[in-house]
Amino acid sequence: MEDSNIDPGVSPSNDGSSTSQDEALFSMADMFLFSLIVGLLTYWFFFRKKKEEVPDFPKIQTTTNTSTRDNSFVEKMKKTGKNIVVFYGSQTGTGEEFANRLSKDAHRYGMRGMSADPEEYEMGDLSRLTEIDNALAVFCMATYGEGDPTDNAQDFYDWLQETDTDLSGLKFAVFGLGNKTYEHFNAMGKYVDKRLEELGGQRIFELGLGDDDGNLEEDFITWREQFWPAVCEHFGVEATGEESSIRQYELVVQTDVNMNKVYTGEMGRLKSYETQKPPFDAKNPFLAAVTVNRKLNKGGERHLMHLELDITGSKIRYESGDHVAVYPANDTALVQKLGDILGADLETIISLNNLDEESNKKHPFPCPSTYRTALTYYLDITNPPRTNVLYELAQYATDPKEQETLRKMASSAPEGKSLYLSWVVEARRNILAILEDIPSLRPPIDHLCELLPRLQARYYSIASSSKVHSNSIHICAVVVEYEAKCGRTNKGVATNWLKNKLITDNGHKATVPMYVRKSQFRLPFKSSTPVIMIGPGTGIAPFVGFIQERAWLKQQGKEVGETVLFYGCRHENEDYLYKDELKQFHADGVLTQLNVAFSRDQEHKIYVQHLLKKNKENVWKLISEDNAHIYVCGDARNMARDVQNAFYEIVAEFGKLDQAQAVEYVKKLMTKGRYSLDVWS
């Protein structure tokens, strides 16, 4: 009953005063009840149990989605019926070239191959390669710098270091491309070979170690001729016949094309040189204006030069010790001679289209372009062609003897190898010289363009500090020109091209397509750490930047440690590079020691390693007591090795160690980042 809900504390009364009080109390109770009811209704409305709604999450994509399929070399192999994939780590194009040759070889054994850039694929798919019958992965891996992976193999290298993927069942083989003059000979090839086995892969043929200081082409051919029989034995297949010429690209002559759609030398995006957009890299170089181009030496037959490239507005950042890469152009006279000897119209606009429609590489170089553009900006016409090029071209020699000679040089027979080494490699015959010396050889220009390797960027140690020159990058280089054994004068592509990048009287500035490649060649983190720099000739380049930076740090009030330079040149009055600048740095106390060896100013030659030994006591103190960092830049074949031997002697003498212990001591300095090399051969 409702009455039972009346508050027992409220007594009914009939007098007037109590009635007004009751009315007030009743209205307060009413308000309370009203609020309670409203509250309950609100709660019910908002929090009543609703039918549960399933959130409309986007569906998780499975591994068969389009983007993953595009990144999966296994899916591509399945789709195209391939069972051999040849990955390449390549900085100068040679590793890629070898990979292409191996993938083309596969058809001779009833197999089908594809070459692949590891940067473009999901390398974790190596564990899935067993899904394809008789599948094989081959790796042509170049080593760059001091044991580093090439740019396009960096992600693959990082993955190998971090992964614990089970690669059981993976069949693999590795050919490494290296140079014995470097401390870490073929480090990348050795690492990939070792790591794939550790992850469970099965090596079906021994690691190949190519040496570019010797004859890389011969090393590759020798490995390759033993590799394929091992493949045949492992998979139970047989060679189907002799090597045959198979075109990879078809020629399409563009007769009616909008000239705005034609490449004129761009490395990536069409018209990228007209509308520059950062970030700038190997596929999108920056067109830097040349603001300074001066000769450094005062005499002698050589031409040593200093160039300054304006990077204002590019957002390019660099550190002392980095490298600048430039894309050169071939000599226009050489290009014209090639066109003339082949009877070709160099202004013809063409495309070379890959016959394999599934290939990621649609063209061998940016297309459409003219033959003149291709031969000027995209193709290497100055290096001696490799044996596969000679083999492919041999079919066009109309003289039987000349055709036989070409085929012999392209063969794996000892006599053929010897002839190729002497007549092509050692004589430094380029493709034009070969065409001139073999009169009956006149291949179609489009097939020649298909066969020639890409013209590569050239790298130079930056000769400036961004702390002092934030909007310019400096280059120090020597122009290459020499008399070849074949009697011709050969010229270095990039240095002669740079030499001609002159500033004209009307203020027109020539431009250079460039980008910056980061380096491990770095000044110590603490400016108070002493540095010992050894760099004869143009090896002085990175140290100009180092010294500029140490001077800037000193101006900022930072404590700067001892800065010691060992520099060498032929004659003090001829090729003492940056003589005035170095003497000024020394006078200002930035360079605490300036040691210069003039190798030919006296009867007995004096080199930087001799000056090191002469100053051995101080050198040892800097290394052993002051934790100095050592930097060596220049020639790898002789200078860097001789300098290293000098350090072995100093360490052995003052550290009271035997030869083996001294070598180990120096190697530990390298491991700790206290002995750095920036060398070339």
Short recap of the structure:
With about 675 residues, the protein is α/β, with parallel strands linked by helices.
| Rg, alpha carbons | 35 Å
Task: Measure the end-to-end span.
Answer: 108 Å
Give me the secondary-structure category. alpha/beta
By DSSP, the count of extended strands is 23
Share of helix among residues? 25-40%
Question: What does the overall shape look like?
Answer: globular
Largest sheet: 7 strands, mixed
Average of per-residue pLDDT values: 90
Poorly predicted spans: 1-26, 45-67
Features:
alpha/beta, six-stranded antiparallel sheet, 22 helices, 681 residues, seven-stranded mixed sheet, 36% helix
Description:
The protein is an alpha/beta fold. Helices cover 36% and strands 18% of the residues. The chain is built from 22 helices and 23 strands. Strands 1, 2, 3, 4, 5, 6 and 7 form a 7-stranded mixed beta sheet that branches. Helix 10 (387-394) packs antiparallel against helix 11 and helix 11 (400-409) packs across helix 12. The longest helix has 32 residues, at 16-47. The radius of gyration is 35 Å and the shape is globular. It starts with 15 loop residues before the first helix and ends with a strand. The model is unreliable at 1-26 and 45-67 (pLDDT under 50).
How are the secondary structure elements laid out?
Blueprint: H1 16-47, H2 66-71, H3 73-80, E1 84-89, H4 94-105, E2 113-116, E3 136-144, E4 148-149, H5 154-162, E5 171-178, H6 187-198, E6 202-203, E7 208-211, H7 216-235, E8 249-253, E9 286-295, E10 304-310, E11 323-326, H8 332-341, E12 349-354, E13 369-370, H9 371-378, H10 387-394, H11 400-409, H12 414-426, H13 431-437, H14 445-451, E14 458-461, E15 472-478, E16 481-483, E17 489-491, H15 493-499, E18 511-517, E19 531-534, H16 541-555, E20 563-569, H17 572-575, H18 579-587, E21 593-598, H19 608-614, H20 616-624, E22 629-635, H21 636-654, H22 659-671, E23 675-680
Parallel strand pairs: 1-2, 1-3, 3-5, 5-6, 5-7, 19-20, 19-22, 20-21, 22-23
Antiparallel strand pairs: 3-4, 8-12, 9-10, 9-18, 10-15, 11-14, 11-18, 12-13, 16-17
Helix pairs in contact: 8-9, 10-11, 11-12, 19-21, 21-22
